[in-house]
Write a structure and sequence with these properties.
Layout: H1 3-23, E1 28-29, E2 37-39, H2 43-53, E3 56-62, E4 68-73, E5 79-85, E6 91-98
Antiparallel strand pairs: 1-2, 2-6, 3-4, 4-5, 5-6
């Protein structure tokens, strides 16, 4: 399968999973403009990312609004997914794609210009 065919297949698979998720009880979609798909629990989404794409939790942090932001990725396949969980609320896929490359750069220490 060529890279572009693989991307189309991945996009179609995600669309299918998200379509099923939207019809699940308790699932909701945010406004159409943002086109985010949200689920009441992250567990099934995380399982799906691992099972279908080999993605694992790569990075996580809390944003200024207190939301948990997580990046799942697959070094082998080069795919990635960004997920945001609102405190006491749903978990939403905000972006996904391919071409993930894991790099670790040493950050300059505060007060020391790069």
């Amino acid at each position: 399968m060529t890279r572009s065919n693989a991307f189309v297949a991945r996009t179609a698979a995600i669309a299918g999973v998200l379509a099923l998720a939207l019809t699940a009880p308790g699932a909701k979609q945010a406004d159409a403009q943002s086109a985010r798909v949200c689920l009441p629990q992250a567990t099934s989404l995380v399982d799906q990312l691992g099972r279908e794409y080999g993605e694992v939790l790569t990075a996580a942090g809390v944003d200024a609004a207190g939301n948990l932001v997580q990046i799942y990725s697959s070094d082998d396949r080069g795919t990635w997914t960004i997920v945001v969980t609102v405190p006491g609320g749903p978990t939403c896929v905000v972006s996904s794609g391919e071409g993930w490359v894991r790099e670790q750069a040493e950050m300059p220490k505060p007060g020391n210009p790069a």
